Amino acid sequence: MFPTLALVSLSFLAIAYGQQVGTLTAETHPKLSVSQCTAGGSCTTVQRSVVLDSNWRWLHDVGGSTNCYTGNTWDDSLCPDPTTCAANCALDGADYSGTYGITTSGNALSLKFVTQGPYSTNIGSRVYLLSEDDSTYEMFNLKNQEFTFDVDMSALPCGLNGALYFVEMDKDGGSGRFPTNKAGSKYGTGYCDTQCPHDIKFINGEANVLDWAGSSNDPNAGTGHYGTCCNEMDIWEANSMGAAVTPHVCTVQGQTRCEGTDCGDGDERYDGICDKDGCDFNSWRMGDQTFLGPGKTVDTSSKFTVVTQFITADNTTSGDLSEIRRLYVQNGKVIANSKTQIAGMDAYDSITDDFCNAQKTTFGDTNTFEQMGGLATMGDAFETGMVLVMSIWDDHEAKMLWLDSDYPTDADASAPGVSRGPCPTTSGDPTDVESQSPGATVIFSNIKTGPIGSTFTS
């Protein structure tokens, strides 16, 4: 994700986060079937499930129902310090559909933006794919493989992001490395990404209460002393007006807690341990404003298939990742990715290190992607294993303008790389989006993995 995320939910009686396990609401993971394909194009359906991120869950005292976190403030008596808070507070189960607007049907996952629950109004959500055992995350290595899914984002306006991506989380959510984390992946713990987010309430099995400050523009969010970092592969960040595919890399392997300069906050953005900008391929930003959107070549007013291929240098699963290639399928037609139409750049249609270097030079952007190892580092993260994340969110920090409008807003919109989509720079304010588009929904379905060329029909 481009900005540091402030993902919000008013769950049950209060937004809450924790590491113990509560017993007031049963945790039942929604089932989701996915397909595993072979080189011959034969695909087998397997049963999996999704789990809600711990950041959305009700957090209360162990054995009781007193909130450990209310609004954007910790209870000082229950949470005087990180370790005491972890011992005192429990994450509870989730009412996925009633409270969070998360539903599944066969191979389809639907994420609703605003849900009026019995006790609360929930904003956005984030879920992870669990493995066959229903208690650990499914781990993906996509080197020399392709990943395919269908998406319906016709109901996602400017300012929203229906995202599908991979992050280098621990398979067990960190419970093995950090014994104070009793909830683990079964309750959606252990999140990390290249923005090194500080809004995660528990990191490394401890409450992020040190230096906690409530957000000035979000009554339910705040930031703590620590961030949580890891490699991130953004397969799909999109709304009906624009989309981007973006690898981000780090100098560390696996989920890593950061503090100070290592987090890359503010003016130290390019001094941290992760590449926050990434190397994005956004068709509009790369000069083709006719490719993706309502009524365009890839018509976002109806469902379509997104195919992402991870090519290695020697076409084996052990070779260095050298190219990320994108295809689309809609109405029975395979659609090649758009080509760059930027003065001074070759006509690239995929992500390679050469593309990334040319883009950074042409746009005048800092090239931390190359400095941190580029695509080879992304491939190394896949070898370690990455977790599938699907979410819907709005952006309290940058209004999603980095995805669908002109960004930064104080730059000349005609300068290469500044215009990223057709949305006005006045769009994306969370207050407006939440009040005007509460029914916004993204549907991800028909997820398939397999060797190159096995998951779709050409």
UniProtKB/TrEMBL annotation:
<comment type="similarity">
    <text>Belongs to the glycosyl hydrolase 7 (cellulase C) family.</text>
</comment>
<dbReference type="GO" id="GO:0030245">
    <property type="term" value="P:cellulose catabolic process"/>
</dbReference>
<keyword id="KW-0378">Hydrolase</keyword>
<keyword id="KW-0624">Polysaccharide degradation</keyword>
<feature type="region of interest" description="Disordered">
    <location>
        <begin position="412"/>
        <end position="438"/>
    </location>
</feature>
<dbReference type="GO" id="GO:0016162">
    <property type="term" value="F:cellulose 1,4-beta-cellobiosidase activity"/>
</dbReference>
<feature type="signal peptide">
    <location>
        <begin position="1"/>
        <end position="18"/>
    </location>
</feature>
<keyword id="KW-0326">Glycosidase</keyword>
<keyword id="KW-0732">Signal</keyword>
<keyword id="KW-0136">Cellulose degradation</keyword>
<dbReference type="InterPro" id="IPR037019">
    <property type="entry name" value="Glyco_hydro_7_sf"/>
</dbReference>
<dbReference type="Pfam" id="PF00840">
    <property type="entry name" value="Glyco_hydro_7"/>
</dbReference>
<keyword id="KW-0119">Carbohydrate metabolism</keyword>
<dbReference type="InterPro" id="IPR013320">
    <property type="entry name" value="ConA-like_dom_sf"/>
</dbReference>
<dbReference type="InterPro" id="IPR001722">
    <property type="entry name" value="Glyco_hydro_7"/>
</dbReference>
<feature type="compositionally biased region" description="Polar residues">
    <location>
        <begin position="424"/>
        <end position="438"/>
    </location>
</feature>
<protein>
    <recommendedName>
        <fullName>Glucanase</fullName>
        <ecNumber>3.2.1.-</ecNumber>
    </recommendedName>
</protein>
